[in-house]
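hi!! sorry for the late reply, been swamped w classes. u asked for the two structures so here they r. pasted raw, havent cleaned anything up. first the sequence of the first protein and right below it the C-alpha cells
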Amino acid sequence: FWYAQVLGIFHVMARDREAPTAEHRRIDVVWVRWLGTDPDSPGSFKRKRLPRVGFVPQDPDADIAAEDTLAAFGFIDPADILRAAHLIPAFAHGRRSDLFGPNLRSAVQPKDGTGDWQYFYVNQFVDRDMAMRYRGGGIGH
C-alpha cells in the first residue's frame, strides 16, 4: 500500500490544448503528501510490529515549483483511494521540522509550528465502531 496525507481536493476544468475545439471537462484530483515505509522498522504479524511510515523528505532549498518536490507531493485520482487509514504518531521519535524549506513549510505543516511527527505507526486493527461502519448497522452496537 501507499500512504498519504490529503492536503486538498480539487475540481479542475481542463481541455486539450492541442485540440482547440475540445470541450472543457471536469477532472477531480486529490493533492497528497506522500508517506514512505521506514526500512529500519519493517512491520508484520510475524515480527509483531506495526508498519512504520514517515513523510517523504524534500530538498529544503527547493522552490514549490521545483522538480524534486514531485517525490514529496502528488495528485491522484480520487477513485484510486481505497480508504482512510488510522495512523498513530510514534511519540518516542518526536517531531521534526526540517523536511521542507520555508517556501513549503507554511502550506503543509501544523499551524502551531511544532513540526511533523517523525514517524507514524499504521494501525492494522479496528475496534467495534470501525467494523460496524463498514459492515452496516449503528456505531456503538
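now the second protein. again sequence first, C-alpha cells right under
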Amino acid sequence: MKVTEKSGGKNDRKSGRQETASWAVLFEAVRTGDMETVQRELDRGVPVNSTNASGQTALFLCRDRSVAKLLLDRGADMEWEDHEGRTPLFAVLSTDVADLLAGRGADTNHRDREGRTPIFYARTEAEAELLLDHDAFVFYRDIHGETILVQTRDTDLFRLYLEEGADPCVCTAAGVPLLVCVAREDRRDLVELLLRYKCLRKQKLKRKERIFLKAYLSQAPCQVLLKLVEYNDMKQVRWLVELGAGLQARDRQGQGVLHKACTGAMVRYLLDHGADPLVVDNEGNTPLHMSTVCSDAEAVELLLQHGLDVNARNAAGRTPLFASYDGSATSVLLQHHADLHARDRLGYTALMRCDIGTDTMEVLLGAGLDIDARDNNGETALMHMHYDFQLEFLLDHGADINATDNKGWTVLMQMAVRPCLGRRKAELMKFLLERGADPNIKDKEGCSVLMHALRRHRYWAEIQVLADHGADARVVDKEGRGVLHHCLMYSWPEHVPDLLAMGADPNLRDAAGKTPLVLLLEKGNTKSAATLWARGARCTPEECVRACQMALENNLCDRDELQAFFRETGWDLELLLPEGTASGS
C-alpha cells in the first residue's frame, strides 16, 4: 500500500506531500526508537502500514522491541511483503524485535523472490540461533539451487548450520562441490568442518576436482586429518589419505597423527601408510606418551614394536609410564622393561598423580613400586590424591597416613588447605580421621591441622569434623599463637564462640604479647571483642587504647562502636582515649 499516489490536481499534489511528510516522520521515529513520536504520529492517523519507495513499512526499520510491540498492537502487518517479497523478519536489525515477531507467529520460513528464507540473511550466530529456535529450516535452496551453507563463509555460522543438519555435500549454482569451492578459497577452517561432517563419504567428485583436492591436501599440512584421527573416524581418514593428505601434519602443539591416534586399529593404519613414529611434540612427548593416555594396550604394543623408547622422557622428565590410565597399558609398558622407579623433574613417581585409577595403581604396586616414596617436597603418593577411592586403595595397601613432608605437613593438613575440593573437603577429612589420621600432629612451625584449617577457610564444616575427632584447641605454635590468634589473623571472627567452646584460651599471649582480644580491637571488630570479653578475655587499659587508636586511624570503626565496647568493660572511653587524641600520646 502506498499513500503517495500521484494525481493531476494541485491540491492532490499538496496532500501527497503532506502525507509523505507524515510517514517520513513515523519512519524516522521508528528507526531511532522514539516511542513518544511514534505514538503521536499514529494517534494523528498516519497509517501504521504506510510504505516507503521500497515497499517497506515502518516495522521493517524497527530496532526497539517496545516500539515493535506498539506497531503490532496498532495493526502493523508482520507478514507484509516489500518489493523483493521479504517480510519484516528479513530486515529487522535487532534480535529482540526478531524474537517478538517470531514469537507472535511470523513465518520463519517465508521465501522471498530469490527463494531465500530469513535465515539466509542472518549476520550473527545469535540471529541464526533465534530463527532456528523458532523452527527455521537450513536445507531450503534458493532459485539458483544453492543452500544457506553455500552462501555462508562465517566460520561460526557455518559450524552452526552443519550442527543443525545442513547437507555438507551440496554444490554451488555452477555445480562445484562446496568442499572444492572453499578449498579453492583456501578456507582450511571450512574444509575441516566439511570433512568432519563426512562430506567425502557420499560426495561425487569429477576427475579434475579430485586432482585439485589431492594437490591441495598434499601441499599443506592437513589439520583436518589430525581432527579426524582424534575422532577415530577411520573411513574419513582413509578417504583423505587416498586423496593424498600428508601424514606429516602437525598441530600448534607439534603433535602429529600418531599423537592423536587412540586405538590400535588407527595406529596400525597410520603406521602401515608411512606415519613417522619418532615424531616428538613441543613438550617432548612421543606418540607412546599419548597412546598410554588413551589407555589402548594394542596401540602401545604397536608403537613399541616400531622402535619407540619405552623410557623416553618429555620436557617434564616423565616417561610413558606416567601417562598410563589403564592397567593393561601399564602392564604392556612394564613387560617392555619400563623403569618402574623413574622420577620426573619434581621427583614424582608414576604413582603420584591425582587422576590415577586403582587398576593402574594395583599394577604399579604389584610390580614393586614403593607406596611411601617421596617427591622433592617430601610428599608421598597419598598426598597427591583427590578422591576417597584413591585414598582408600592406598591405605588398604599400607600407605602411612601420618607421614610428613618437608614442611612437616601430613596428608590431613594437605587436605585442609587444598582449594579445589569444595564441599568434598569435609568428607575427605572425615574419611582420613576415621582411618587413623592424627589431628594433633604439629608441622615444623608448630601448627596443627586445626590452625591450617582456620587460616584457609571460613566454613565451619571442616573445623567441626576436626573437633569431633579430638583436635586440641589449646595447641600453641612456635610464635606463641593459639587457634584464636590464627582465626582472627585471617578475619574469621564468627568462629570465636565455637573455638571457645572447644577450650581455646582467650587470654593466650603470642610472641609479640598480643592476646586475641587485642587483635580484634586492632581490626575494629568491637562486636566480636565484646563477645570475647564476656567469655573471660582480658587485656590492660593501655593495650586497649593502643589497639583502638590503630582501628580509628585505619577507619576500621568509629567512636560510637568503641563506646559500645567500653560499656561492656566498664572503662571510660573519654578518660582513656579523649576525642582527637593522637596515636602514641
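hope this helps!! also noticed smth abt the second:
Confidence is low (pLDDT under 50) at residues 1-19.
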